[in-house]
Amino acid sequence: MVSELKAEQLRAARAYVGFSQKELANITGITTQTIRRLERNGIADASFATVSKLTQAFQSGGLRFTDTGGVEPVSKPETVGA
Question: Which end of the chain is more exposed for a tag (fewer CB within 10 A), N or C?
Answer without folding.
Answer: C
